[in-house]
Design brief:
This protein is an alpha/beta fold. The protein contains 13 helices and 15 strands. Bound molecules: ligand T4K.
């Protein structure tokens, strides 16, 4: 806990002496991490499908109930390999309201992301907008389970089937989550997780592509390792997508604490819900209690009826060393790279634009205590009262 006692009126110093970040990493069983690291050093096996990576992959398959887990060195490479392994071409429909990696995995491979709008109630892809974005060049739909709340799979899969399109998920936010009681990882042709340091479950850098399709899994594994089959035989286009053993050690140490991480996130989310409930114009995004959730993002919409605007609130929090974020502002289609390119200048996504202008994401995870959250809610209440 790094909070200073509140001064009367506006604090002369930031209320938090150390910055409180969104995305502060969770660190699980340190003793296990050190033991595994020592084992790795003793064995002198540091990468290339080592024993720790294999253990982690097996543990993830068990947790999710999926046939194959292909661990990779980050989620973006996971997306790229998934795109290549399914031979996508031309245009691919994605949300604009996402981290830019979803779109850039496509641009990097010479494909064209076509942005569809979101449902403002869920922040996930709106199936009607997806339908409207389909052209003869469309080869696939890549929805995102934003904030860990699963996208509407039944509707999206029906659209994909009707139009003969591939469907797979950017599940970067949704490790440990479910939809209709079925674990994320079992939807679409495959699903791609990110295990980046800022995710509630991390392997420093890392990710995984999971699938129930044996042939696709085989191709993903070849592509992750330069296309090698055996020592001297390259049978597939490939890249270096391998996860290092030290990353798998971190994954195994964090997996052991997964339930604790989720419980802390859930408790924090509840504390925010209580602390913000009386404030006008603020809507904290909830999670369906009937599903498994990781609660890793605390997402607040700052509505027009809130006396302080979203950016005013961000400023008030930052002045007190609370480094809240306005993910995923301004939406990919309004970022310079896309906005300035032919085909994107006229893209209008009213729901994406409205939500991107309202959202603020607050700190949570094992680095944020209940007292910290109480102070953050107080800062927000003061900013609202002062406006
Ligand atoms: N798809 C989606 C939907 C994604 O959200 C992401 C990644 C991907 C695909 C791609 O997966 P990866 O290839 O990354 O595995 C961060 C993460 O870097 C990124 O992984 C994540 N999404 C995104 C939502 O957040 P930035 O640009 O916000 O990072 P940065 O450096 O501003 O850090 C975020 C906060 O975390 C800061 O407040 C500082 C804090 N932090 C960060 C690190 C690395 C720490 O306190 N300690 C740390 O070690 O992207």
């Amino acid at each position: 806990m790094s909070a200073k006692p509140p001064a009367s009126g506006r604090a002369p110093h930031p209320r938090f002496s150390d910055p409180l970040h969104v995305g502060r990493p969770n660190i699980g069983d340190e003793a296990l991490f050190k033991t595994l690291t020592q084992q790795m050093l003793d064995a002198r096996w540091l990468s290339n499908n080592g024993p720790l990576v294999q253990q982690l992959e097996a543990a993830i398959c068990d947790l999710i109930g999926v046939r194959h887990c292909v661990a990779v060195n980050n989620g973006t490479i996971g997306l790229e390999i998934a795109i290549r392994a399914q031979d996508l071409t031309g245009e691919v429909i994605v949300p604009s309201y996402t981290f830019v990696a979803t779109a850039h995995a496509l641009t990097w491979l010479g494909l064209t992301p076509v942005f569809a709008d979101i449902d403002p109630a869920t922040h996930n892809l709106d199936p009607d907008s997806v339908r409207a974005a389909i052209t003869p060049k469309t080869s696939a739909i890549v929805p995102v389970h934003l904030w860990g709340r699963a996208a509407p799979d039944a509707e999206l899969q029906a659209i994909a089937d009707e139009h003969g399109l591939k469907l797979f998920y950017d599940a970067a936010h949704a490790f440990g989550c479910s939809l209709g009681g079925r674990m994320v990882g079992n939807f679409g042709a495959c699903e791609v997780f990110s295990f980046h340091a800022t995710k509630f479950f991390n392997t420093f850098e890392g990710g995984a592509v999971v699938t129930n399709d044996d042939a696709l899994a085989e191709r993903l594994k070849l592509m992750r390792n330069f296309g090698f089959s055996g020592f001297d035989n390259v049978v597939e286009r490939g890249t270096n997508g391998k996860m290092a053993e030290i990353c798998a050690a971190m994954g195994l140490a964090n997996l052991r604490c997964l339930d604790r991480f989720v419980e802390i996130n859930r408790r924090n989310h509840q504390a925010y819900a209580q602390g913000l409930s009386a404030l006008p114009g603020l809507r904290l995004l909830g999670f369906d209690p009937a599903e498994r959730n990781n609660y890793q993002y605390v997402v607040v919409e700052v509505g027009a009826d809130c006396p302080v605007g979203r950016d005013g609130l961000l400023e008030a929090l930052q002045a007190e060393n609370v480094l809240a974020r306005r993910y995923f502002w301004p939406g990919c289609h309004r970022m310079a790279f896309f906005r300035d390119r032919a085909g994107y200048a006229d893209v209008a996504l009213p729901n994406t634009e409205a939500i991107a202008d309202q959202v603020i994401v607050l700190p949570t995870g094992t680095g944020a205590g209940l007292e910290d959250i109480g102070q953050i809610c107080e800062i927000i209440a003061e900013a609202v009262a002062a406006s």
